[in-house]
Design brief:
Length: 197
């Protein structure tokens, strides 16, 4: 899969200050912050692929900052196994089998720029759920899909995390122009990440 077309976005309604699926995520290391402190929550509920939680925490923060998301915002990324992802894909998208990434936007479904005013306050950006097992099966096909994508599982998961966060910010790939804009933003964020690695 070179164009991440099997990704899905599911909208989640905000109910008070409750989180969606990833609200039960256990924060990892120094990555998590409480609401109002610009927290990125990372949870790893799978055992298929060994992950660097700090890498994904920093990546999410970099994308949010670059896209103009207010500093006091909260985002969660949860890594799950194939079975759990298949259940989520069925429940939220009506599709059978696991997918690589699902995004559940909360406050910024119209785009980050609309909430970047100084008086916008803290926001719950949303939750991204990634299935590393699906990423691993797609990684080789992803080689070269973005400049610097070397076909590794890490590169594919990097792409999926960025893709999911951009979905939280209102970007989509259903129309050609929107898909091109999203791909350009993905490429820019990944170029920055991979140039530091």
């Amino acid at each position: 899969m070179t164009d991440v077309t099997r990704n899905a976005t599911a909208t989640s309604e905000r109910a008070g200050s409750q989180r969606t699926l990833a609200s039960c995520a256990e924060p990892v290391g120094g990555c998590a912050g409480s609401l109002g402190e610009g927290g990125v929550l990372i949870a790893d509920r799978q055992s298929d692929v060994r992950l660097d939680s700090q890498r994904y925490c920093a990546l999410v923060r970099d994308v949010l900052d670059a896209e103009g998301v207010p500093p006091g915002s909260e985002t969660a990324v949860t890594f799950v196994g194939s079975e759990e992802m298949a259940q989520l894909n069925k429940a939220h998208m009506g599709h059978v089998g696991p997918t690589d990434v699902l995004a559940f936007p909360i406050d910024l479904v119209a785009g980050a720029q609309e909430s970047s005013a100084p008086d916008a306050g803290d926001v719950l950006v949303g939750d991204v759920v990634v299935c590393p097992a699906v990423a691993a099966s797609n990684a080789a096909a992803g080689a070269g899909s973005r400049p610097g994508h070397d076909g590794s599982v890490t590169a594919e998961i990097d792409l999926l995390v960025v893709h999911g966060v951009l979905h939280l910010l209102g970007m989509d790939h259903t129309e050609p122009a929107a898909a091109a804009a999203m791909r350009a933003r993905e490429t820019e964020h990944l170029r920055k990440l991979w140039s530091r690695s």
